[in-house]
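Follow-up to my earlier ticket, as requested here are the two runs.
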Amino acid sequence: MKTASLLTFLLASATFCTAQQAKVNIQQDQKINSLLAHYKSVNETSSHYRIQVGFGTDQQAQALKTNIDKDYPTLPATIDFEYPSYRVRLGKFKTKLEGERTLMDVRKKYPEAMLLKPKKTTK
């Protein structure tokens, strides 16, 4: 008897239950979009100091980048192609002083490293 009444109650309540539906409307100031656009344009056009650790063929650059990633995991390392070779570059420093401080540490392991300010930075 109890199970029959419980089953009846559950079936009756299931017919009245419906899933909730909601519509989210986000309202934001239009200045946010203009600020984001300005931020993107500044980052694309500004150049940063980078440490060039080495260069060579694609395979040499890949091997060097693997070693760099192990030695300096907190700094972004990239491979840039500039005819006729691939260049492995480390970090993105806004000031020359920041770059030189890191360069002193990098040169202990990679003595051929040098600080550059490329005309166009990679993303």
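Run two:
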Amino acid sequence: MSEQSKDDGQRRADERRESPRVPMRIRVRRENSSQAFDSREGNISLGGFAWFGTSLSVGMKVEARFTLPGSTEELQVRGEVLHVAHGSRGSSAHVRFLDLPVELEMLIARYLDDLELAESKRGGGP
């Protein structure tokens, strides 16, 4: 792997970590399933989402739906389970977005930016 590729990969990982995780109710199911979506507490970030409760295996593809506060449009996304954790709240699945259309990425980014700005104003930040 070239030094540039390592730097680019590290920068992308750092960018994902810097994105805030925002609590969100998420409806999720296995990709291409005919079963109903299972509504779970979770969170979203710019790179993906997570939910608590029944988790799926690493590598599994999922479909999810959620509505950003202040919007009536339900967003539909695809993702891949990267990590499954077991903690005080039970199991959680951590998912990265797959094939996220630019328009949806921009909606999510704008929402997260607006929350961060509102939080900094409340907290007396810069």
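The only thing I checked on run two: The first helix runs from residue 3 to 18. Let me know what else you need.
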